[in-house]
Amino acid sequence: MTGQTGFLYPFIEPAGQDAGPLLADLAASARAKARESATLQRATLAEWADQLAACAAAMADRFAAGGRMYAFGNGGSSTDCATLVSLFARPPAGRGLPALSLAADQAVVTALGNDVGFDLIFSRQLIAHSGDCDIAVALSTSGSSRDLIAALREARGRGLLTIGFAGYSGGEMAAPGAADYCFVVRSQSVHRIQESQALLGYQLWACVQLSLGGTNGVSPRTPRGLPDGRAIISGISGRQSGPAAPDRGE
Amino acid sequence: MTAGIAPDLLDAGLAEDLAVTALALARRFHAGATMWCAAPSWEPHAHHMAVEFVHPVIVGKRALPAFALAGPDLVSQARVAARPGDILIAVSEAGDANAADLMRRTRAWGALSVWIGSGGPSGCSVRPPGGAADHILWIDDPDPAIPATGQFVLLYHLLWELTHVCFEHPGLLTAKTGGWPYNRSSGPAQPGGTGGYSVRPPGGYCADDVCITCSDEGRLGEVITPPDGPFAAALARTATGEELVDVTLVGPVSAGDLILIHAGAALARAS
Fold first, then answer.
1. Which of A16, A82, A195 sits opposite B169 (nearest CB)?
2. Which of A217, B6, B150, B190 would disulfide-bridge A195, Cβ 3.0–4.6 Å?
3. Tens digit of pLDDT for each residue in B94-112?
């Protein structure tokens, strides 16, 4: 194959005119990647189970003291932040908790980006809004986005509880002292990292609800029942081995 | 709410639906479509889908035109935004009336509708009826927190990736048929041509695109301008453009009403 996805799908021939074989291969690879995603989710929840429980208890203490949660990220991670904020603030079960996305207001984000620089779009908001009973949650796949690292540094200096979500091997977020808790999803694929980060966020929310006693209808997702990796088809591991877009910065 | 990660995040049927939907998207993009993304109750998913297609995570992948629709009155926004040949993709739970309304109107606008969703009202899992959208990608799990577990993210990540794989097969981007039956999720016996609505006009039964008594079509239209007099026609938008329609049979209509058009006349309301 000459196309750019040839390395992902070496078994697909580009010359055919009948869509049947292509559709069959697409479906098979979709299932393989979904299994890989589930396997990674299971491994991630298992690796961080103790840290998740401790982090949720610390978050519950902050919420109980009147604190707010501020979440931030870039690109797709900013949308996953917003989903997490929705889950905390307007949950389908349990108590609503004060949570805000710092990427949500285009006036504030573009004003700060234009006037003081993109690296400070989140940290400057924390200076304006946050106090020492609040919580900062940074979502990144690289773990090294400069605006997030700057915001975590500001948050730590101001006494916030600091929580990072990262991928790959954790980046700067996983360095000692960068955050109180850093949950690293050990994958090289931006997509698979985001899928596991979403479940980590869900788990954190469920544990916070349990800690606050708002348990009505809320239960954490246990990593039982997941398929193992044996069915993943050789040669389509699903890892996106191409480099991440340098300026997407998630 | 359920505990545990689903044993299989993607069953065989959903994987087939994804594959068919990806090829349909690739064909539309190839022909110049813009994709409009909406998620009435979980708006961030609309933004995530749009950024996925506009600014791919893999260097060298082509940027595809996709916009998120956000804020109030998504139907009004989409009505103005969508051109014939475009794609409208919605993410929602089963009971979301806004998503259902968007999906059914999409056919009158000549666009392709894709509905990603889960669950159903009051704790039961209810998949939209066949024909509620051209393509339905459904997670049969009643847990109302599914939108926040990453499962929707997985679905549109895969949809993006499979769509790009289809671009490697230019010979298939203009084909009309081949492979599996398309619209598997719609089901062969459903009145898919009218968005799930059936109509019994005087003297005949026209539940599908083609009338069994006169072989003419029953097409979905959206009223643009009501008649300006008792004997005047309404101006309606359909998949093939704008046309004047006799609405005598259905009585007074207002802008935005959905009607089924057959041989130049509205035979029924579709609502």
1. A16
2. B150
3. 888 999 999 999 999 999 9
Going from the C-alpha of B145 to that of each of A35, A152, B100, B119, B152, the distances in angstroms are: 21, 28, 19, 9, 11
Query: Which residues share a beta bridge with A202?
Result: none
CA distance A133 to chain B (A): 25
C-beta atoms of A4 and B60 within 8 A = yes
**In chain B, what residues touch A82 (CB-CB under 8 Å)?**
43-44, 47
3-class secondary structure, B111:
coil
CA B246 to chain centre: 26
Contact across the interface for B48 and A12, Cβ inside 8 Å: no
Q: What is the ipTM, given to two decimal places?
A: 0.82
E strands within A91-232?
A: 99-101, 135-139, 161-166, 181-184
Place of tokens 């620089």: A117
Q: What is the pTM of this model?
A: 0.84
Q: Which residue reads 């610390």 in tokens?
A: A58
CA nearest to A5, candidates B172, B60, B54 = B60
The residues facing A165 across adjacent strands are A139, A183
Please state at what angle helix B43-54 crosses helix B151-166, rounded to 10 degrees. 30
| Each residue's pLDDT tens digit, A127-180 | 999 999 999 999 999 999 999 999 999 999 999 999 999 999 999 999 999 999
CB-based contact B20 A191, cutoff 8 Å: no
Q: At what angle do helices A19-64 and B12-30 cross, to 10 degrees?
A: 110
What is the per-residue pLDDT across A71-126, written as a single tens digit (0 to 9) for each? 999 999 999 999 999 999 999 999 999 999 999 999 999 999 999 999 999 999 99
SS3 of residue B247 by DSSP: coil
C-alpha A25/C-alpha B148 separation (Å) is 29
